[in-house]
DNA sequence: ATGAAAGCGCTAACAA
DNA sequence: TTGTTAGCGCTTTCAT
């Protein structure tokens, strides 16, 4: 039925050890190696990775746990991670948690059962706070959101600075009634809010903010309601690409003209932001770099399990488009 | 070091078989089951999935091979597939081929080595034509693109009809100089072109068409060049979401006003299409249904390996927006 | 350089 | 219901 290394050995007239060595590029004479290769071709043999992992005790697999792969930010990061991983001979298991702590716990358990080499993880705040990398049995690199107190390695954006960049830009365009919309499950939302609030405080301005579930629908609803109020902001900072999508839908539904009636600026240079309305002003995250840096940190951590945790902080780039211009 | 079922058995004072049964919800008395669970908690035991797969001879894993997860169509399909799969207790391996036949071959080999239960595969035309599901050793369900002659199960859109829908719509809006842009690597592009050409032929009109690599960049370039020509079309049908993105960038770069100077209609109701310009008229694919149907077909095929191959043809829905209105 | 043999952690006969 | 035992296919000593 299924052909094993034993069948190959038999067909080649060598021992299973020799076949294994030939496969692993170990010390095998050219003559035997040729015989083995012929036998593999003749039998149609394919190594069984489960057996290999069981015996060799390394899975060469990393887990990538994100909230939702439909978010273009995570899609882009995951492509970068996968490309690097496959080049390094590692597989990637991708999981979507929908920002649900129960699912996060479930997938972390799965990662243990898969005996993964390591995990790259965009955790909710709740999980990041209680994460115990020691107990998990594999290294974890957090992306997008960091753990408090440097409990784990992390690759993040300088969220506060980026939010400040957006506020400064809107101020330069003459805005003073600036509101902010943020996600309520991640530390990222909190950090961006902090930067937003600090920048406005420094300017002596109020910093009205709202927090919503991290979905386009929630954002659309929140923005619609907010803009209908008497003291509605004239400019809006939106904390991520998903929320920005919802905000933009609200703007369209209300028939508002950007930037005349409302200035809009947000996070994530998703491909559509350049095409919507007059183009949306956004903070571009270095998504490829985030993926690469996370993989690199994971590999470093594997080599030096004891070194102290690090946080790589990357800088966002302000992309100015029509939605925020005076 | 790593705790195995043996350690649990020892701690619980039972045999390894009893632990295994307790884990598999086999016949175990409540008393022993409690002891086992206590021992698992005490030891922090986690089953080793590699060992389980090796011994049980089923991986409970399905492979999902797409061209590029950054394409929102595949992102959406993959989410649907994963949700169904995880509910059915299966894990998913996701691979990106970038429409590269070498990568396709490599990942199919990987699937064999993982001893996957089955594969859902968006193949290039080249690979679909030579696909031999028998030799692979696992069932394959093609998505988005079918194999000629029904060589494998498939879930596809009625591409020709959908393209016809777009042409009819543009005709109704009074257009007669209608051009089409299609991808050059997939059967999907070919089918959409066929439907496009047939619909225009029936109307007694010319059907100028161009074929490009399936990237936004190639589309942008092709559209820019085409619209600069003397006999440029006044309406454009674009074969998928990625190409549509490129086309839209070209439109913006040229400063064209939709739909006054150019009518635009295409495939894939990606979230941005409602926000770009006056909103883009598109064919919406039932992405969730595609994912679900593919998983369902895979499971059916596993139960009935011998039944003849089937092709599930789903219907696209025309979503009319401003980009194509007279 | 090659082979014999042990055993990774688990499930599935088979016995009891 | 429970325990004993034989492998699943592979890598890795340990000999030779």
Automatic annotation (TrEMBL), chains A, B:
Keywords: DNA-binding, Transcription, Transcription regulation. InterPro entries: HTH_LacI, LacI/GalR-like_sensor, Lambda_DNA-bd_dom_sf, Peripla_BP_I. The keyword 4Fe-4S does not apply. Residues 3-56 form the HTH lacI-type domain. SMART domains: HTH_LACI (SM00354). The keyword Transmembrane helix does not apply. This is Substrate-binding domain-containing protein. It comes from Chromobacterium fluminis.
